[in-house]
Design goal:
Cytochrome Bc1 Complex, Chain D, domain 2, heme, globular, Cyt_c-like_dom, 2 domains, 2 strands, mainly alpha, single chain, binds heme C, two-stranded antiparallel ribbon
């Protein structure tokens, strides 16, 4: 009995401390304030880490996309699409359902992920910082190796057909996802899904406007150097 009371008191004290340390509202892109539960978001991310990496940096040689630093509205929308199965994702079926991931958790994990801005490179040895911070930044870094192909020709195709939505620097905006700093294997797999109508892409005509295999190779070469 005594042990139970002590445990209860300890958990109440921990709860009070957590409430005092509640994060201040974050300002979202667009200026809105949002009081999300960052600790809950971080906690949920532990389930996702097995595939997407501890900080959402992606993994599996690019099979699992980088999901850190994306706009929270895009992340939340994709999670809802997985839940309703309007976007098929067999590996995520057990995680993206209402029991495992109710709407509040969708928002918390999306907003938590949006706060992690993946650096383009691991910190250089010249920069002074403590070992833990260095390790954390090295893990968060997403650096895309250069793809073969003519990046200059790819840039022209990109600027004609992709820039309008995915932006010149490839960082995207709001619900138009970033292509820069995303794993190539994942991006290329998405094109296959779009072309076979298994995933919907806005204005598909622009995406498929006749492009040869050579054109695609050049587009990937350009996208792969956007983060250099
Ligand atoms: C078992 C592995 C696995 C786990 C666990 C997992 N995912 Fe995924 N996730 C994937 C795969 C594979 C894809 C890519 C699917 C595709 O190719 O369309 C993906 C795609 C995504 C995307 C879409 C990214 C984009 O650019 O459109 C988001 C967002 C996402 N996952 C979030 C999460 C979150 C949040 C969790 C934890 C609640 C999670 N995932 C857990 C395997 C996983
Ligand atoms: C009219 C706007 C628009 C244009 C033009 C456009 N896209 Fe997209 N693209 C989107 C949107 C919106 C999505 C997210 C789809 C969704 O909601 O599931 C997307 C998603 C993608 C994805 C998947 C990214 C991810 O994280 O899952 C890839 C890859 C992609 N686009 C490549 C391209 C390429 C390459 C071009 C040019 C040849 C292009 N897009 C042109 C709007 C656009």
């Amino acid at each position: 009995m005594r042990a139970v009371v002590l445990a209860l008191m300890a958990s109440l004290a921990a709860g009070a401390a957590a409430a005092q340390n509640a994060p201040p509202p974050v300002t979202l892109p667009g200026g809105k304030n949002w009081n999300f539960d960052i600790d809950n978001g971080r906690e949920i991310m532990r389930t996702c880490a097995a595939c997407h990496g501890e900080y959402g940096e992606g993994g599996g040689g690019g099979v699992y996309p980088r999901i850190s630093g994306m706009h929270p509205d895009y992340l939340a929308e994709q999670l809802r699409a997985f839940k309703t199965r309007t976007r098929e994702n067999i590996p995520m079926f057990p995680y993206a359902n209402d029991r495992e991931l109710p709407e509040k958790d969708v928002l918390d994990v999306s907003h938590y992920l949006a706060t992690i801005k993946p650096p383009k490179h691991p910190p250089s040895d010249d920069v002074k910082m403590d070992a833990f911070e260095r390790l954390k930044l090295a893990k968060q870094a997403v650096q895309i190796p250069r793809e073969p192909g003519d990046a200059d020709k790819g840039r022209k195709l990109y600027e004609a057909d992709c820039l309008e939505c995915h932006a010149r620097d490839g960082q995207g905006r709001v619900k138009k996802p970033p292509l820069a700093q995303q794993h190539m294997k994942y991006l290329q797999a998405q094109i296959t899904l779009f072309l076979s109508d298994m995933r919907k892409h806005e204005d598909i005509d622009e995406l498929i406007r006749p492009k040869s295999a050579e054109d695609w190779k050049n587009i990937w070469a350009h996208i792969s150097v956007l983060d250099d």
